[in-house]
Model the fold of this input.
Amino acid sequence: MYKICFVMLASFMLAACSDQPDPFSKNDQTGRWYTQSQVGEGRKIYRDNCSQCHGKRGQGAPQWNKPDAQGFYPPPPLNGTAHSWHHPLPMLQRTINEGSRGRMPAWKGKLDEQQINAVIAYFQSWWPDQAYDLWLKRHRR
Ligand code: HEC
Done:
């Protein structure tokens, strides 16, 4: 009996660890791929790691679409008003994992897969339905 439970638990954990979320799945609470508890987990991760650059409500830097003197763009909004909905889920995960052009830090090794998904869930919870629907359309390509 214990053995069976252990095997079940182990395979559940394995599935939970390597499970790539399906962007087309619809959670009952949110109508989107993520759960309300992922949004809750992501809120704290975002506050601790992302808000100083991307803004408390994901509004981005004031002049986010103007390159600075070195030709680098400031942190863009993540609230659905800028480009983030152009990027399918794997690309969002990759940008967060690897960072970008030396200006966006790499989070690999600091945040695990589950935390990165939670923080994506959190900033996507700001996206209006229209931006979210456009994002899903990008996935269909
Ligand atoms: C030190 C400032 C800084 C921090 C901290 C930071 N970012 Fe960024 N982020 C940036 C900059 C700058 C860019 C734009 C990079 C570019 O133009 O290539 C960016 C780009 C992005 C993008 C791509 C958006 C798009 O529209 O293309 C995502 C997604 C993102 N960041 C998520 C996050 C998340 C999630 C966190 C916290 C875990 C975070 N960032 C923390 C500076 C930061």
Notes: The chain has a mean pLDDT of 89. The pocket of heme C is lined by residues 49-50, 52-54, 73-76, 78, 82-84, 87, 92, 95-96, 100-101, 103-105, 107, 119 (CB under 6 Å). The CA atoms of residues 38 and 118 lie 5 Å apart. The radius of gyration is 17 Å.
